[in-house]
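Q: Hi! First time doing this. I have a protein sequence and I read that you can turn it into a structure. Is that right? Here it is:
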Amino acid sequence: MATGLCLVLFAIALLVLHLKEGRMEVEPGKAVALRSIWPIDNVGVLMPTGTRFFSPLFWKRFTDVDLQNQPFDPEPASVIMQDGVELEFDYVFDTFCVGDWPNDRAATEEAVVKAVSRIDYGKRKELVLTRLAHYIQAAVAGFTSVDATGNGKVNFLQQVENSINTALQHEWREWGIRAHVESEDINRPAALRAASEAEAAAGARAQALRKIAEGQADAFKKIGDVTGATPDEVVKWMSIQGAAEALKGALEAMRKGK
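A: Yes, that's right. Below is the predicted 3D structure, encoded as C-alpha cells:
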C-alpha cells in the first residue's frame, strides 16, 4: 500500500511539474525551440499561437525564433568586374525570415529546427551576408564595368538579381532561412565618386582662371598696340591704376565714416 501511495504522490508531483513548468504561452509570429535533456540531443518546436505544453523532464526552453519577415538594407557590396574595375552593388533584402509562416506550417517547423541546430541563430544575418558576398561576386563574373554601368545596366542588374536569388535557395534548404534580394544600383565606390567630382570641379576652376588670364593678356596686348608700351609697362601701369583705385576707395570709405 505504501508503494502504491508513493506512486500516486509521484504521479501527482509529475502532473504539477508538467502543469507549472511545462506550460508556455507562444506569441503570435514566433516559435519556441526546445532542446531535449535526455536521452538524446534533439530539437523540438512549439508553434504559435497560444498555450503549449511540453514535458520539463525531457525538454528545456532553448531560444525564441521570430517567424515574421524582417527586410533590411545592408551596406553596398564591393565587387571587382572582369576589367579590374571596382564597383559597389547596392541592394536590399525584401524577404528575410525563418520558414514560411503562416503559409506552410510543416515547412516552417522544419526550418526552425535547422535555424537553431545548424547555425548560430542570433548571427543568421551575418552568416547569410558572408555567403552573399561570394554569390554577388560570382554573379558579376564575366561582366565588365561598361556592361554594368552602360546602356545595358537595367538588364545587367536583373541578371545579377536572378543569379543571387537562385543561389540563396541553398540557405533555405540548409539553414531554413528564406531570403530574397532586390537589386537597386551599381556604381563606382562613393569615395572614388567624390574624388572624381572634386577633380572635375578643380578642372572647371582652372579652366575659368585660364580664360580670365587669356582675357587679361588680350586686353594688355590691345593697350600696348594703342599706346606703344611694352607688355611690362602695361602690367606696371595696370598695377598702379589698380592700387590707385584701391586707395581712392579707402579714402572714400574714411570720408563717409566721418
